[in-house]
Write a structure and sequence with these properties.
The protein has 270 residues and is α/β, with parallel strands linked by helices. It folds into 2 domains: 198 residues, Spore Coat Polysaccharide Biosynthesis Protein SpsA, Chain A (Alpha-Beta Complex), CATH 3.90.550; 56 residues, no CATH class. It is 38% helix and 19% strand. Strands 3-2-1-4-7-6-8-5 form an 8-stranded mixed β-sheet, sandwiched between helices. 42% of the residues are buried.
């Protein structure tokens, strides 16, 4: 029987957090879901823990990748076998809260949006950070028009048709695959966000100059790619300017960082 929701969870060396991430999904009022855990070539006990979770709960399904391919490729593998009418993205080190699954699925039942997200709060950081992005479709669209992320990808639920229409995560981008995925639909379909926290996110240390330079580089690549793909009549002048700004940021970062080799970096994708 087709579940209402498929939760796609990419997991790489997530042995210490995977169990909590999966269990947190069941703490709300929505129980008609499946969890597709994709072990992305982990070298720790992630695969064994995922298998144990699947034995205890038939809603948990495990996809095993033979080597680490990155979060985008892992999510694509999960999307390929997902059966739900709605698809929720949830990382293996995050915690679901705020009755997320039911509230988002109910929203998509009654509203025309193709994507519904929510806010996050960081844990294991001091002080805790709280997202406060736009919630209405016009505000989210303006963010994307300006070349920045309009909602929280890791707290997002999609209609499954979104991936059929716009494709999955483009693996040629080592970073910013989530931004690229959402940007492709940003001016074509409606997206909203709940004003409440639905995700507890394990925030890491502030990015180094090298990491920021790489992020700027890949964000520019995404903006450039989508600007070329869009119909020339589409009004994206703000995006065009943002694309140029990002390129200047990359050049500035490169001038102050030695031997970064951004485009050849083999760091794990986000």
């Amino acid at each position: 029987m087709r579940p209402r929701i498929s939760v796609v969870m990419a997991a790489h060396n997530a042995a210490t957090t995977l169990g909590q991430a999966v269990r947190s999904l069941d703490e709300g009022d929505e129980h008609d879901y499946e969890v597709v855990v994709v072990d992305d070539g982990s070298t720790d006990d992630t695969a064994a823990i995922a298998a144990a979770l699947a034995r205890r709960d038939e809603r948990v399904r495990v996809v095993q990748l033979p080597a680490n391919r990155g979060a985008g490729a892992a999510r694509n593998a999960g999307l390929a076998v997902a059966r739900g009418g709605y698809v929720a993205i949830h990382d293996a080190d995050d915690i679901c809260c705020g009755n997320r699954l039911k509230r988002q699925a109910d929203w998509l039942d009654r509203e025309p949006d193709w994507v519904i997200s929510g806010q996050f709060r960081t844990i294991e950081t001091s002080p805790a950070l709280l997202s406060c992005g736009p919630t209405d479709p016009s505000g989210i669209r303006r963010r994307f028009q300006g070349g920045t992320m309009g909602l929280v990808h890791g707290a997002s639920m999609f209609r499954s048709e979104y991936f059929a229409r716009f494709g999955g995560y483009r693996e040629q981008f080592r970073r910013s695959q989530d931004f690229d995925l959402l940007l492709r639909g940003a001016l074509i379909v409606s997206m909203s966000s709940l004003p409440d926290v639905v995700l507890l996110y394990r925030g890491g240390p502030s990015p180094s100059l090298t990491q920021r330079a790489r992020r700027h580089y890949w964000r520019h690549r995404v903006l450039e790619s989508n600007f070329v793909l869009l119909d020339s009549s589409t009004p994206w002048p703000i995006l065009a300017r943002r694309c140029a700004v990002h390129l200047r940021s990359v050049k500035t970062s490169l001038s102050t960082t030695s031997a970064i080799q951004i485009h050849e970096s083999h760091d794990e994708p986000q």
